[in-house]
Design goal:
Lipocalin; 6 helices
Length: 438
């Protein structure tokens, strides 16, 4: 067994070395005469914060040549230009030998940072690449900097659920049982390992909180409410979930799909099947477009996007509930799907299992829709959207069930919450929901 492990290790080392020497030879070949003293620098990062790329760059006096490689697709573009002090100007040449863009950047020993523009300078995107010893063969795992964490106060007076889905973006919710309030949290990094989050109730900021929200151990969170009230509470990390992730990027497209994974395999299997189907559909569309357009044309750079992400609105040892969001830029309408998954039974709760009289629940939701329209009195587009949407995305909240609209590109998503007390005459208490109704 040890022999096999060592053999696989050495194969990996050899493959990495060959790939590194291959791209170094390509840089040398870009100069008209052999340059035995040419030192090739390597950089790694992302274009437009999306596609992961590596760059090999060599300069003789002011003359610079290089190769830009997409890590996942292995597509390559040639670079040639000049450097004056630290200011680098490069032309980008595509696989048909045509100019596909310009790169203007600042080059240091540690990084290369600047902007890419198309030849007509009509489209542009930023990039930042860090100096590395070698360009990686494989892409960085896309879930590396993402996490999902659930916290509770020792006295159960507060529960916090947070998702870190990007480089600095953190969002989630907080439930305060004594106030019977389910509040929305949104924010990001505040430096020194802390996160600062705004607290929203009905789209209005009602306060803020700051904490480290580490994966383990007790920690203090400082609350500051809009009226000036401040208080500090201790929280304990109750559980952390794993972020599943599928990512792909090439010259033409960028796909990113993130989703939660729990300790329950039945849920994980269901979730992975949903997201994988969307990922396969997206990759097929990208491959079909690429087949029709073999040239790395700057007009089509990063022109295809697809994303999938999950809003988790409720979580405990018995249930997980949220909304799966699917979007791409070749279809007009986003696709949303809500879920209430019962861990004990290993399956989704259907509308039929939730309600014994669903028509009466629909009447309650429609009455609350009238209240939303009154709040936005005079906005005809908003009113027409609310009236037409059936608010079919049903989720659990600590104090009841929420009925959410589909996502609107201008108005976002609206949500109506009905308490378990309001719903009690219509709930099917023989179903899985009975565990939540007290």
């Amino acid at each position: 067994m040890r022999t096999i492990i060592w053999l696989l290790f050495f194969i990996g080392v050899i493959q990495s070395s060959l790939a590194q020497s291959d791209i170094e030879l390509k840089v040398h070949a870009l100069f008209e005469e052999d340059q035995p003293t040419l030192e090739v620098q390597y950089f790694h990062g992302r274009m437009d914060a999306m596609q992961e790329v590596g760059m090999a760059l060599g300069c003789i006096d002011k003359d610079c040549r290089g190769v830009l490689r997409y890590i996942r697709s292995k597509e390559e573009l040639l670079l040639k230009g000049t450097i004056k002090k630290e200011e680098l100007t490069l032309e980008e040449i595509n696989n048909f030998g045509k100019k596909s863009g310009n790169l203007s950047a600042t080059l240091t020993n540690n990084s290369i940072e600047g902007w890419w523009t198309d030849p007509a300078e009509e489209n542009y995107s930023p990039f930042k690449l860090l100096a590395v010893n070698k360009i990686p063969l494989k892409a960085t795992p896309c879930g590396k900097e993402k996490w999902i964490r659930y916290f509770s106060s020792p006295d159960n007076k507060a529960h916090i659920f947070l998702q870190k889905s990007g480089d600095s973006v953190v969002e989630g919710w907080m439930f305060l049982p004594e106030r019977n309030k389910n509040l929305i949290l949104e924010g990001g990094t505040a430096g020194d390992g802390y996160y600062e989050l705004q607290v929203f109730e009905d789209h209005n900021v009602v306060g803020s909180l700051i904490g480290s929200f580490k994966a383990q151990g007790a920690q203090n969170v400082l609350f500051e409410w809009e009226g000036g009230e401040k208080n500090q509470m201790q929280f304990i990390s109750s559980e952390k979930l794993i972020y599943g992730c599928i990512e792909y990027g090439d010259f033409l497209s960028y796909f990113s799909m993130t989703y939660p994974l729990t300790r329950h395999q039945s849920f994980n299997t269901w979730m992975e099947k949903k997201v994988s189907a969307f990922a396969s559909e997206s990759k097929k569309y990208g491959a079909d477009v690429r087949k029709e357009n073999p040239e790395l044309n700057p007009a089509m750079r990063s022109s295809i996007h697809a994303n999938a992400w999950t809003e988790i609105n409720y979580y405990n040892k018995g249930f997980i509930s949220g909304i799966l969001n699917f979007s791409n830029n070749w279809k007009e309408q986003e696709s949303d799907e809500s879920f209430i998954f019962n861990f004990k039974d290993g399956k989704l709760l259907t509308k039929k299992e939730l309600f014994k009289i669903s028509s009466e629940v629909e009447k309650l939701v429609n009455n609350r829709k009238l209240g939303l329209i009154e709040i936005k009195n005079g906005d005809e587009n908003y009113n027409a959207w609310i009236a037409a949407d059936e608010f079919e995305l049903i989720n659990i909240q600590y104090n009841g069930l929420s009925f959410a609209s589909a996502f609107h590109p201008i108005f976002g998503r609206e949500k109506i919450v009905l308490t378990f007390e309001e719903l009690s005459p219509y709930l099917n208490t023989n179903g899985g929901i009975s565990a939540l109704v007290k």
